[in-house]
Structures are given as structure tokens and as C-alpha cells.
């Protein structure tokens, strides 16, 4: 388990910090040895099955450009010298040593965890000031990154125009720290934050599942339909006065009662929730496929050994 600051243990962290306020954990993973380097991450982003993105602060056509993978060697060879960041999602699926990092967070339910995203940034690289709707542990790997945090945000917080990235239109830092390898910054949902690389650096981001009520209701509705029967609309006691074009409150209360009866079925709700929250992130991917297993063991295995991608170098 990660090493909390003096005076804080797993129980007090969950009571006082989890989903409430940020916490800087210096040397949360003591003597941390990053399980991969930037070239290995770039090699992984060449794979079609892997979700990856490149963020260019000064893009080819306009500021804050977002490009989606899979990428090619040529993409890396033409990267600008200005700040940029490579982000690869779900690296824990492909690299066992990254997946093992999850064991450091055994004080949290495993099924709550979404994935580990790994980012590489050149000097001053960033994805801009932003906020997330989920909890995240930002684990510093190689190099140093300055993290600044601000206030709480929500769906009404203004975002920068002219970019596909959800960058805050205005960011006012309240605290700032430089993280070294093994340092961890915990952020609860909706806290504004901005990370900037000081030299080349890599960050491992352990994010947690945070579906919206709409997403859950949509999936629950599919589950209820698949089971069939048992839940049908019936009218409330009618009177002639209710035969109007308007839908009176009695009908609304009747619908509310019907839907509540679905939610009150704890067996149905429990079975659906367990299935929903443990569903694989990439459902269309068969991780039992021998070819995918080979890539999981050796990401970028189609590429030449020792290939260098970062900073546009192409030497062996």
C-alpha cells in the first residue's frame, strides 16, 4: 500500500480526503522505478488496439491541437520542438508492470478503478488547465512535473473556445508543487488542476469510474428490458375530470411509483450494478486472442528492437 504522510493512514484518508479535498503524498511509492520509458509508450501508441492522443500546445494549424492515434513513426518524426504531450489510455491492460501498480491502492475497491493512463511530455508540455469528474491519483514517474490546483468546477465553468480540449478559460492557482518520481497527488472530482513538465517527464494517472446517472439509467433500462415482464404502466384511479389533454400530477406520481418499484428491487439492482461496474473498459477487445496477448507482453513488438521515437529521433 502507498505510504501516506505522517499522521494519515488509509482509514483517515478515506474519511477526510476521499472525494473531498486534494492530498499531496510525498514518496507515496518510495524508491519508485518507472515500469516503462517514453519510447516504450510511443511504441504502444502505434498499435491499432490502443487508445492514444497527442496534444500540441502550438499545433500545425492552431493552438492546443488534439490528435488521435494510432500514430506512426512519421507522426513522431514531425513533432514540433514546442511543448507537446503523448497520452496512452489503459496501459495497465498491456503492461503487467503498470498493472501491478494498482496493488499499491488496495485500500480502495478494485472494481472502482477505471484504468491507468500514462503520459509523456517534453519540456513545458501540458494538456492545459482542466478538471475531471472522477477521482485520480497522479503518480510521478520519470522527471519532474509542476502541478497547480485551483477551485471547484462544474458544467457551468467556462471553457476555452477554438479547441477540442476541455481547457479552462480561466485558471487561478491556489497551491502548487513540483512532483518527483514516486510522489503522488490525489485529486477529488471537479478540482481545477494544471500540470506542466519541467524537462522531460512521465506521469501515471490512476482514474476511477464515475458514470453519470443518465448513463447508468440507460444501461439499467436495457437490463430491465432484457429480463422482460413484471413492470407495466397502470393508471391511477380515474375520474371524468381527468379526461383532459393535460397530464395531471396523479399520472406523474403513478409513473414515479412504477419506476421506484424497479429501483426497490435490490436483487435486480445489485446484479445489474455488479455487471455494469466490472464490465471491461474495451468490450470489443478479446484479450484472450493470442495476438493481443503477445502485444500485451511486448507492446510495440512489431517494431524494431531499440527503436527511438521521442523527439523525432529515428536511430537504432
The general outline is elongated
Task: Give the number of domains.
Answer: 2
Report the CATH topology name of the largest domain: Jelly Rolls
Percent strand equals: 15-25%
Order of strands across the main sheet: 1-9-6-11-5-4-2-3
What's the rounded overall pLDDT mean? 90
- Assign the CATH class of the largest domain: Mainly Beta
- End-to-end separation in angstroms reads 38 Å
| Overall helicity | 10-25%
Number of strands: 11
Low confidence ranges: 300-306, 312-316
Q: By CATH's scheme, which homologous superfamily of the largest domain applies?
A: Cupin
The CATH architecture assignment of the largest domain turns out to be Sandwich
Order of helices and strands: HEHEEHEHEEEEEEEHHHH
Give a brief outline of the structure.
The chain is of the alpha+beta class and 316 residues long.
Amino acid at each position: 500500500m502507498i505510504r501516506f504522510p505522517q499522521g494519515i493512514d488509509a482509514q483517515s484518508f478515506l474519511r477526510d480526503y476521499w472525494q473531498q479535498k486534494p492530498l499531496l503524498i510525498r514518496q507515496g511509492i518510495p524508491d519508485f522505478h518507472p515500469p516503462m520509458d517514453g519510447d516504450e509508450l510511443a511504441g504502444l501508441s502505434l498499435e491499432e488496439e490502443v487508445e492514444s492522443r497527442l496534444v500540441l500546445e502550438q499545433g500545425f494549424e492552431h493552438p492546443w491541437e488534439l490528435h488521435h492515434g494510432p500514430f506512426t513513426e512519421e507522426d513522431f518524426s514531425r513533432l514540433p520542438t514546442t511543448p507537446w504531450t503523448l497520452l496512452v489510455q489503459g496501459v495497465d491492460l498491456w503492461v503487467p508492470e503498470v498493472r501491478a501498480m494498482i496493488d499499491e491502492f488496495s485500500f480502495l475497491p478494485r472494481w472502482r478503478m477505471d484504468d491507468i493512463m500514462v503520459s509523456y511530455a517534453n519540456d513545458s508540455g501540458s494538456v492545459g488547465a482542466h478538471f475531471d469528474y472522477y477521482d485520480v491519483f497522479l503518480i510521478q514517474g520519470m522527471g519532474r512535473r509542476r502541478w497547480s490546483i485551483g477551485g471547484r468546477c462544474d458544467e457551468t465553468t467556462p471553457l476555452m473556445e477554438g479547441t477540442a480540449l476541455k481547457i479552462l478559460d480561466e485558471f487561478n492557482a491556489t497551491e502548487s508543487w513540483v512532483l518527483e518520481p514516486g510522489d503522488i497527488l490525489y485529486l477529488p472530482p471537479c478540482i481545477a488542476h494544471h500540470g506542466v513538465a519541467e524537462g522531460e517527464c512521465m506521469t501515471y494517472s490512476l482514474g476511477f469510474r464515475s458514470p453519470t446517472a443518465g448513463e447508468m439509467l440507460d444501461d439499467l433500462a436495457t437490463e430491465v428490458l432484457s429480463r422482460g415482464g413484471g413492470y407495466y404502466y397502470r393508471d391511477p384511479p380515474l375520474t371524468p375530470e381527468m379526461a383532459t389533454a393535460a397530464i395531471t400530477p396523479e399520472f406523474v406520481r403513478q409513473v414515479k411509483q412504477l419506476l421506484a418499484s424497479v429501483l426497490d428491487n435490490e436483487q435486480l439492482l445489485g446484479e445489474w450494478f455488479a455487471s455494469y461496474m466490472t464490465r471491461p473498459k474495451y468490450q470489443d477487445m478479446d484479450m484472450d486472442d493470442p495476438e493481443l496477448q503477445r502485444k500485451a507482453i511486448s507492446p510495440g513488438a512489431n517494431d524494431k528492437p531499440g527503436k527511438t521515437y521521442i523527439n523525432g529521433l529515428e536511430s537504432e
